[in-house]
Amino acid sequence: MIFELAKKRKTTRIFLNEKVNIEDIKYAINVAKEAPSGMNSQPWHFVIVDDEKLKEKIRKSVEEKEKIFYEKSKGKLKDFLNEYNITWQKSFLTEAPYLILVYSDKRFPFSKESTWISVGYLLLALEERGLSSLTYTPPNPQDFNFSTYKLEVIIPVGYGNDPKPKLKRKDLNEIISYNKI
Q1: DSSP E strand boundaries for the chain
Q2: What would the mean pLDDT of 90-110 be, rounded to a whole number?
């Protein structure tokens, strides 16, 4: 079942204007908290945002930095962004019914790695509930930090309306080697 969820899950940048049951979001976070972590520190914190004004504030903040980033992009990155029509405008931050801001607690060793493992669990749990998502890493995560928590990712969540297919994955034999370091 996990393999089928993983094959089905894709990045979604376009969402339906339809409310999501908050219990599905809480279920996915409940799954995410079961991830392993260094020292069992469970260094993650999840902030659920559905307030339209706050979503707009987040979008405005990141778009200012994104515009600069996109203007400086070149080479393979610029080619990728152009090919997939990805721009500095991040409408998904206000169009998705929910944003989940995922933080790691800097006080613990391996907090970033542990938190990203929990994000993997979260994405599959959202997919299980029929919800679409995107892992968006803003260019200015420090603007959203609080206390000892560092922003790792913003995950817009909702019912997907993105017609783009999932991007092709490498074949298994391309990513495995045996007894070779």
Answers
A1: 44-49, 98-105, 132-133, 149-158
A2: 98
